[in-house]
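Class prep. Write one:
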Amino acid sequence: MPTRHDSVPHPDPHRGSVPDPGPAPRSARGGWLLARLRAAPGGALAFAALVCVAVFTAAALPRALDASSDAALRSALDRARPADRMVSATASAGPEAGVRDELRRRIAPGAVRTAYAALSDAVRSPLRPADGEAAYGVHNTTPAEADDPGLPRPSSDVRPKATLTAQARLAGRTRLAEGRMPSPTVKGSEGRRRVQAAVTAETAHRMKLAPGDTFHLPGSLGGTTVEVTGVVAPRGSRAQVRESTFWHAEESMVRPSLVTIPPDSPAGQKRFYWHFSAFIHPKAAPALLEMRDGAELFFHHPVLASKLSGHQASGAARKLAEVSSGAPAARLQSRAGVGTLTFDTGLQETLEAYERESAAVSPLLLIACLGLATTGLTVLLLAGVLAAERRTEEFALLRSRGASLWGLSQRLLAETGVVAVPAAAVATAVALWATPGARTGAALAAAAAVTVTACLALPLRAALAHRTVRATRARTDVTRARRSRRRTVLEAAVFALVAGAVVAVRQRGTGDGDTLLALAPVLVATAAAMLLLRCYPLPLRLLSRLAVRRSGPVAFLGLARAARAPSAAVSGPALLALLVALTVASFGGTVLASIAEGRDAAALRAVGADARIEDPAAEHVLPKLAKRVAKAPGVAGVTAVRSHDDGELVNVTDSLTVALVDASAYARLTHRDGQGPFSPDDLGLSASNASSGPVPALVSPGIARKLGGGSEYTDLILPGLQLPVRPAVVREHTPAARDGDFVVLSREAVARARPDTRNTALLAPNTLLVSGASPDAATLRQLLKEADPKADPKTLVSSRSEKREQYADSVLQAGAERLYTAAVLAAAGFSALAVLLSLLQTAPDRRALLVRLRTLGLPRRQGRGVLLVESLPLYVLTALAGALSGLATVPLLGPGIDLAALAGTPDSLPVRIGADPASLALPPLALLAPALLGLFAQARLAGRGSPDPRTENLEPR
């Protein structure tokens, strides 16, 4: 911890040596600590502030990671279907499941409750049930057709279908709106059963049912007549009902569902029918056994998503797997006693999908977290090194007077601990209060590690530097430093480790979350720091030789001071702290910039241009629509394209995208967006070759390979069109095709080859590719709606900006990006702290130097120049090395890192790291700015306090 030299108790030479400070009484040690704190309160406060910042960062980071993963998991569960947010199982009570008496026993209310209790007991932590939301009971296996003519039919030839449900606890979740609740009595003989049921108010309104009405359902032995006795309404508000799994675990519980039947042929039309539910008494469930396909027991055990944390997802998925298979599943089925239980895998698949996404993001976050942790620890070590360097004479005096290393280390540990431990406790408490998160163990462990580092940095550095008693302090000239074999071996080991990490990242990537691979940027910075320490004397020697020949004293004195390096400003920990912080900040900024570029590129590939309008069924309106779109705000150009998704190349492929384009306009579009640019002449067809030669085409690489790289040609088949084509241009992608193989032809070339197609619907455009700075999707949708009222603008209009926002909309990716940004900013903040510590360390020496130079007659302006020349080489070279090390990480580590998981883009479009000038330049500039400001401030403050050489000797003695 920094203190003042004048606070050291100087021994009296007439009384012998100073006693060993180790065995001092406890009261004496307490008084000594109090004296230390009083002697240097500013240094103690600065050290406490540094510990607070480091500990807060260490404690908050794990909880922020947990909070981000928790929010991502809950968002995934909220977006999932209701059936995918619960543990669901069914048990058959159909004719094939057993004899009639056994089936009656299984569907009895008591047996159903027992089975659900067994399932509920089997689902244990971390899966917690949502109280009161469980849904279980019996219903007919297959919805039955209701042949009553009074029931509404959206398609006249399709009957509505009904599900009779005997759901437990229905009376407590509903209120009677009209009529009465159904009776448990089942009347009539076999094949002519008559049961009573209740329906919800929305079902009664949509299906035109009222108390007293009946409808008939066919069964395996005849039919069942259902009498509606009452209309019920769910208890609670609309929002509560909408979120309730009790009402949405099964289909059409609250309101009927309109079901679509796909057309039988491409020329056919869709058909629709209503599916609704009616509730019978649980004791009337035996009537369901006579329905077609019999009855089925259902059990829905909703999970409380707000209580499930991200780190529990893998454990929850394992629990679900155990319940549905293996020995636990056998025990569950034995306890349930309702036959074979079949589990729905929706919840398990949701958790596993989240695990896959989280596993893809975690290694990238690990890089940022380890970089930030290394930066913070190096700054703490730097603080200890600088404090030990400033108090070198004090420690040397104590050692020369008989103080032992153990005693000296104990006192220094107490000195740092009395400041660091309370500061760390306060910072930890604030971090736990300010950051959400269910776990505190990792946060407390990280805070403890940082606190221990802060307490031990000064004692260990002092013990290492003063293990041998010296009478005088050796010079530390950087330009005359002797070579050390140990240092050479250490540097060689670090370079070998860096090389191994870089090779591993390039070959294996970061997908497995290996700590060594995640430390690759930090190792690159460490190697750069060692290389800079080796190379730093060379420019100093060159500049010193040049300064000797100059007449002014500023350059010579400044460079001489820089070469002497009387402080730790040019020591290894200082350079390591600065370079690690700069590299982590530069690399992190590059990652964030690459993520933004990757999203933009993926959005462009998905849309094909800045906006896309498709209307295959209305080719006649697109020419007029193109003119109106071209006049819309933010639109620079419109390219009309005829797109076919069902093209075929004979003997090559039967599925590819074919685009018929205006070659000149389409070429301009490709050049503007950089999507496979080409010359329009490449797709031209001369009049002499129009009748016999193949039509030149722009094709994907897969098509070109199958056609001999362009030496062969084949026939292209489209609806109503067949013509020979040959590859003339090969491109990886093109605006008209979103994915897969493609062929792009000039419409004019096709019209020359097949004159009968000119001015026909075969060449009429059905897609508009819109380019511009900021075309508004809402405006384009409105224009399409006005041009074609039957069109669905929401699905037919897509924009690049909306697609880009969609990629960034994921809670997991957005949270990870925010954490990465915070880590980068924190690393930049620690680099500023490293600069501040270095400036504070050298401030007394600079002040004394200015006083001496002013006493010798050097003007204030030249004295300030000496200070700048002394420090600028270090900071300029460090900033340059930081920029170069950040730039080096791009080609060294970039090929092994795929940012698609952080960007949220499709896996088919990998996002690689690319050099970003702003991200590489801003951190070094942010280092130089506070360094220059601090040097100017020190020089100005010291210059004001320096004595006047004309009056300093006139003071009375």
Summary: The longest strand covers residues 637-649. The CA atoms of residues 510 and 831 lie 26 Å apart. Confidence is low (pLDDT under 50) at residues 1-24, 566-570, 949-957.
